[in-house]
Amino acid sequence: MSASRTERLLNLLLALLNTKVGLPRSILREKVYRDSAENDVAFGRMFERDKVDLRQFGFEIETLTDPQNFGVDDPATTRYRIGKDSNRLPEVSLTPAECTVLLLAAQLWERAALGTAAANAVRKLQAAGGFTDVDLPAGVQPRIKPAGQAFDDVVAAMHGRHPVRFGYLAVSSGREEVRDVEPWGLGSRFGQWYLVGLDRERAAKRLFRLSRMTSAVTVLTGSTFEPPESFNVRAELDSLNELPVQHATLDVDRDRLLPLRKRANSVTPLPAGSNRDRLVVDFRDPEQLAEELASYGPHVLVVSPAELCAAVVRRLQGALDVDAAPSVPLQFPDAGRAPRARKRTSEDQLARMLQLVPFLVHHQGLHIQEVADHFGITRKALIDDLKILICSGLPEGYPDDLLDIQWEDDHVYISEHLDLNRPVRFSEEEAAALLTGLAMLGDLPALAGMAEDQPGSALESVTIKLTGAAGQAGRLAGSVAGQSVAPGQSQAFATITQAIRDGQQLHLKYLSRQRDEVTERDVDPLRLYSLDDTWYFEAYCHSKTGIRNFRLDRVEALAPNGRHVTGSATAAEDFPARLFTPSDDDVLVVLQLTRQGAGLADDYYAERTAPMPDGGLLAEVRFGNAEWLPMFVSQHGGSVRIVHPEQLRKGARAWLDAALAQYDSASDSPAG
Questions:
Q1: Residue 76 parent element (H or E)
Q2: Rounded to whole angstroms, how far apart are CA atoms 284 and 289?
Q3: Helices 455-470, 428-441: inter-axial angle, 10-degree rounding
Q4: Per-residue model confidence as pLDDT tens digits over 354-386
Q5: How far apart (Å, rounded) are the C-alpha atoms in residues 524 and 547?
Q6: Which of 135, 201, 607, 642 could bond to 649 as cystine, CB 3.0-4.6 Å?
């Protein structure tokens, strides 16, 4: 990142904002560019590039012609300026209830492609002074977990209006095909994310399930497209019919796989000597069920239908193929986690500064570390920003023409902002993150315990306010649509939130998939959080004497036990709540993740990562139960392999071999 380029862009912006009559190129070259341009030609090219960069921030640069030379194209007499209201975020005043609803919506995207955009949008509202600090009700933390790296790549392509290319398992033929698609929109229905766009080869609109993509998404940056003006992804997804119910016939080891048995329509013991039962299970999406069945490895055999069987075999074979790839060196950077984000640029730094100055105006005297934490950067990075800011100002160059910022005793104050006291408007991604998030909340605010007369009206009113503030930037919001994140287990959700507020213990019966049993426990509930529409609650478990996480859809019974919480543990300060709680007994495992599976490093809180040449990652992850690793590798077949310890890799390999051997031996016999 070039600090000098950031300073030049900032000085150019300040110069053009703080002039009524405009500035000629000669003044700009002398006062702003100084030694940056060696000659007039170099200056001209640099100035044109910088104007394009400022327009990308939404600043409209006006060109003024000298009236005495009207009609004469003379760059020497042309003046430039930016209106003081150009691209400024309109004033948005939010009530505490609206702030609560908005914070719930923004935090949905915490680890998705729109997470950074949502955080930036909230910071802009805070910088404008229209956002009140609020606490989430009963520790509720909703989040979505989109379909891996493909989601991030498609969102980036939609924003840049670039086509994408990917391998796809066609529903009609069952074959893998390469598709070139203009991505018009992304949306979630029936528990699956869909891409809607123009299939260029077929010259027709098509819908693609992200879970059926068989390769990483390639963004074709050399080409662009324009989506239809009337396109709305919600309308497209509303026309989808849910997949029909099918019946899967499965042979399952006796006394194993209790979660599968509990939802079976029938369980029939197979003839003596087989030690298996035949289960019939309803399903709609073969890919979704195949992911679960693959994780059961050699403990289940898919008898029918053939499509489901093929989907399970494909995952198991993919895991074996990745395991057989050449070994990679176990080398991690000393700093620990390697950043997956793209390299920071001067535009990124300028965007942060345009949030930082108005934030400091409305939050005078904050501790410098508190400011750095608010923007998610290090103290050093913040000081680097401040050093550039205090050297930036108007072309005249007098002391009063500079931004005036002090941080004496580690508390930051600003006394001269040079008309940067209002943040810039929402970008398309920022508007989409907030507006789409609000649409996904559904009944969650009411279920989370907000007053009955507030949540509905607050959700509606804040949506109206932000739609108005977004203006044209709200276009992308019509291209992203998700389902409601309100929990299906509303009664259990209400019981837990009430217990958290009242400080009451809960007694629950819980189906543990890893232990394959139903257990009873007394717990102190701490907080609730979600991944898509799957909700969890974090609690101190008295039988395990530690913090555990429980899925609401696996809670079979739940009620207060009449005792107050013991205070043995409190909700951790980290946000979001971690799905896995580390302990001293964890096993450290080094995983190799493909580009498609790179998101697993975040999902499982990798302690160290290292980028791979193919876009994948080497990740060091803690696992509380090493016996679960073969299930993990099988479930994500083809996206992950164990690199170290070797003993665990061999164990997973034996698990996969045993699982696939069933289908080899069954291939000579008719299904069923």
A1: none
A2: 8
A3: 160
A4: 889 989 988 899 999 999 988 888 899 899 889
A5: 9
A6: 642
Over the stretch 601-616, which tens digit does the pLDDT of each residue have? 877 878 888 888 888 8
With vertex at residue 528, the alpha carbon angle to CA 524 and CA 534, rounded to the nearest 5 degrees, is 125
State the helix-helix crossing angle for 3-17 and 40-56, rounded to 10 degrees. Answer: 80
Query: What number of other Cβ atoms are within 10 A of residue 25's Cβ?
Result: 18
Which of 490, 387, 388 lies closest to 444 in space, CA to CA? Answer: 490
SS3 475: helix
Task: Tell me how far apart the alpha carbons of residues 583 and 532 are, in angstroms, rounded to a whole number.
Answer: 26
SS3 of the chain: helix, strand, coil, percent, to 5: 40, 25, 35
Please state which of the ranges 58-62, 371-375, 568-572 shows the lowest mean pLDDT: 568-572
3-state secondary structure of 10: helix
For residues 654 and 636, what is the distance between their CA atoms, to the nearest angstrom? 16
Residues 98-101: contacts with CB under 8 Å, at least 24 apart? 98/458, 98/461, 98/462, 98/465, 99/131, 99/132, 99/133, 99/134, 100/134, 100/135, 100/136, 100/137, 100/445, 100/450, 100/458, 101/438, 101/441, 101/445, 101/450, 101/455, 101/458, 101/459, 101/462
**Considering the entire predicted model, what is its pTM?**
0.76
* pLDDT band, very low/low/confident/very high, at 66 (cuts 50, 70, 90): low
* H helix or E strand, kind and range, residue 146: none
pLDDT tens string 256-300:
998 899 899 999 999 878 899 999 999 998 888 999 999 999 999
Which H or E run contains 443?
none
Comparing CA positions, the residue from 662, 665, 666, 652 lying closest to residue 295 is: 652
CA 419 to chain centre: 33
Rg of the chain, C-alpha, whole Å = 28
Bridge partners of 607, per DSSP, are none
Residue labelled with tokens 């895991």: 319
Say how many CA atoms lie within 13 Å of 481 toward its Cβ.
19
Q: Strand ranges (DSSP E) for 585-655?
A: 587-593, 608-611, 617-623, 640-644
Geometric angle at alpha carbon 452, from 449 and 458, rounded to 5°: 90
Least confident interval from 133-137, 317-321, 414-418: 133-137
Residue 132, token pair as written in the block: 């009140």
- Report the 10 Å Cβ neighbour count for 305: 17
DSSP characters for 496-557? HHHHHHHTEEEEEEEEETTTTEEEEEEEEEEEEEEETTEEEEEEEETTTTEEEEEEGGGEEE
Under 8 Å between Cβ of 132 and 367? no
Which pair of tokens denotes residue 576? 């979001």
